[in-house]
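TL;DR need structure tokens for one chain.
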Amino acid sequence: MLPREFLRENAARLLGQMPERFAGSGIEQFEELDRLRRETITRLEEKRRRRNELTAGRGRPSPEALAEMKALKEEIRQLEQQEERTSLDLSAVETRIPNVPHESVPRGADETANRVERTWGEPPAFSFAPKAHWDLGPALGILDFDRGVRLAGARFTVLTGAGARLSRALTAFMLDLHSREHGYTEVLPPSLTNSDSLFAVGQLPKFEEDLFRTREGYYLIPTAEVPLTNMHRDEILTADALPIRYVAHTPCFRAEAGAAGRDTRGMIRQHQFEKVEIMTFAHPRESYEHLERLTGHAEEVLKRLGLSYRVVSLATGDLGFGAAKTYDLEVWLPGQGAFREISSCSNYEAFQARRGSIRFRQAEGEKPEFVHTLNGSGLAVGRTIVAVLENYQREDGSVGIPEALRPYFGAGEITK
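>> reply
TL;DR here they are.
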């Protein structure tokens, strides 16, 4: 969430300079609601002051004073109600205004304006036409899309045998890499969360239609970003405790309400999937250094698996709601002949910390400041399975296992 004082001074500028980011967000109503609220408060204070003047006099009030006091009582009641309504409307608008992009973010209306920052590796060359994972997996008996539909519905997949083992191997490999070599503390958080936690990360109220909610009012987490960011909600940290780094492997649940008709085949877009998430609480002066470091940690997974990828800076019109800057890692999928997102690494600056009251104190007695929060997929397990299957496929239908993964998988290939 952005500070009210900042919006008061910059709302019109932001809307004019970046309509692709702010048009329709509610920022158009902010200035009028803020003005109305302040005018109401001024009138309310004037009425209360006059009431106090009348009640402060000695002796019995005159009939005229009594009549004025009666009228003031009703006026104050109405102004209080108006101030309460306007404050609620203003707060609702503020929660829907996205974060301000960092100055280095490319400008543009949509993903066509995204900027490729770098690439790594060479896509594999095949002497045959490479297949997509939705053909490879069923042929190997490791991905069962039909049973996923039967057990739950569309956008669910059953992994069996070597498919389930590959998922477990990738998860263990990623967790070991991030915790043992990159210095993240491993966390196993709940898979259910409350509305306060979802509000803090910016999922509520804007993205409620993409969430699964239980009868008891809990929500299934859409990503481990939610519990990890809320590990220090409503806390004041010390500056010397920063940076704090967490890694977690969790199931993730998304209704994908805004993605109807997209990626209906295969495992790219599922209602339930697994992900290894990496997260950093950073000092504001150092957060962009940490963004590069965190992104590099996600890249290292792809490098060790030998998967060709590129790093893309998202443009202002494609940037996520709470992010100030995002790098997408896109892995090459030869069966689809395209780069596809496998990780997003973002710096939210103080946007989430302000919503979740996550602060730090530079020194004893100093005023607390908001930390900067960063997170990224390190990586999405299902999409990494897709990448391994498509990049390591062989003409006979078998699939090789990357060297770095073999100690976890227990074999060098998957065969029929």
